[in-house]
Design brief:
globular; eight-stranded parallel beta sheet; TIM Barrel; binds S-adenosyl-L-homocysteine; single chain
Length: 367
């Protein structure tokens, strides 16, 4: 993948890092840094901004990927509707609630419920029922984020009332042209943007994000993505490098995919997002770990403050592959916990067990 850049080479990194409000071309400049020394400087600065604004504490969200049944046919995603090679599954209520209780008992503080997209009444009731059951079983003490795609205002409200308080809906790309290249014609960019405002109006802490390093994407596009987050006054970011899935159309456009370059680009985007948006929550996505075994920990050092360890039963993980080389397919939740704890502590970071770790940006905007 080649990145085209029109940025001004006379810009000075040290000067830009000292500035408070970065302009689009300065953001683009930071994203396009290529000298390893400069990139390291960028990461260190972002880490400092993180410590000053949200501390060096890492919050956990145990992720439960409870179903891969999906009505959408996104061109990049391994579980897209038309991928006939995927064995479809749906965890039952008991399995989902048990996974959440495991996260609670292991002091994770929060869970994320994610699945392929459905919006039929049966699914809406199922999710509502699960949210209530998790709240009841954990004495209302477990934080719940959901990531269940585009829904109506009414559905967002029902799930909010049932106990979810954070919602992650990635815009995937804030550029309508790239968005339409990534999605079939029945997906509307504007509707996805509308969903972000419904979520905000409902009272959720709103998370969005993009895939980084999509074929054809430029540094300028990524700078615009960041400005989109700012304009939407987003509370949390979940974004990660795009990784081809061999059974999808977008993979055919990915050309010479280079894990190292893709990882660095993902980390730079995290760092610049932290520098610009300061007090939001930023997740170190699992896709970073798919590119390098300690990619997520590198994300923490570049400005992320959230990690989402998988707490789904291992028997389902293989069927929830959004991209190739998904890590930890055969590692159960207990193994994941100890492996992750050691790695994070090894990086000199602290895990804040048992806390929701809500977005400070959200708290500030609700005052
Ligand atoms: N159905 C939900 C959840 C989607 S899966 C929704 O639409 O919000 C969660 C995220 O995985 C997606 O938002 C997308 O950004 C990411 N993803 C999917 N395929 C990917 C790929 N090939 N590489 C990297 N990330 C991918």
């Amino acid at each position: 993948m080649t990145y085209i850049s029109n940025i001004n080479n006379n810009m000075n990194l040290n000067k830009i890092l000292k500035k408070n409000d970065l302009k689009r071309d300065e953001i683009e400049f930071l994203l396009s840094l290529s000298d390893p020394v400069d990139i390291q400087k960028l990461f260190e600065h972002a880490y400092q901004v993180k410590c000053n604004n949200v501390s060096n504490k890492v919050y956990l969200r145990g992720i439960i990927e409870f179903s891969n049944i999906c009505i959408k046919d996104c061109n990049y995603c391994g579980i897209r509707k038309s991928n006939k090679n995927v064995k479809r599954f749906q965890m039952d209520k008991e399995e989902i609630v048990n996974a959440a209780v495991w996260a609670y008992e292991n002091n994770y503080g929060s869970v994320v419920l994610q699945s392929g997209e459905r919006c039929d009444p049966e699914f809406i009731c199922f999710v509502e029922d699960i949210l209530k059951a998790i709240k009841a079983k954990t004495d209302n003490k477990l934080g719940i984020t959901i990531s269940l795609g585009e829904q109506t205002k009414e559905t967002y409200q029902r799930w909010f009332t049932a106990g979810a308080h954070r919602y992650l809906l990635r815009i995937e790309s804030s550029n309508p042209e790239i968005y339409s290249r990534l999605h079939p014609s029945d997906c509307s960019f504007q509707e996805r943007v509308n969903c972000l405002s419904y979520l905000r109006a409902t009272g959720y802490q709103v998370g969005t994000g993009v895939m980084i390093g999509i074929p054809g994407q430029t540094f300028a596009n990524l700078a615009d993505d960041l400005l989109f987050f700012q304009e939407q006054d987003i509370d949390m970011i979940g974004m990660g490098p795009y990784i081809p899935h061999h059974e999808t159309p977008t993979a055919d456009e990915a050309g010479n995919f280079n894990s190292e370059t893709q990882l660095t680009l993902g980390l730079k985007m995290i760092a610049v997002t932290r520098i610009v948006l300061k007090n939001i929550n930023i997740a170190a996505a699992t896709a970073l770990q798919a590119l390098k075994y300690d990619g997520r920990e590198m994300g923490l050092k570049a400005g992320a403050n959230i990690i989402m360890p998988n707490v789904s039963d291992t028997k389902y993980r293989e069927s929830y592959q959004l991209y190739d080389n998904k890590p930890c397919l055969d590692e159960n939740s207990t193994q994941c916990k100890s492996c992750l704890t050691n790695r994070v502590l090894g990086m000199g970071e602290e895990i804040e067990f048992g806390k929701w770790g809500d977005s400070l940006h959200f708290k500030a905007r609700c005052k």
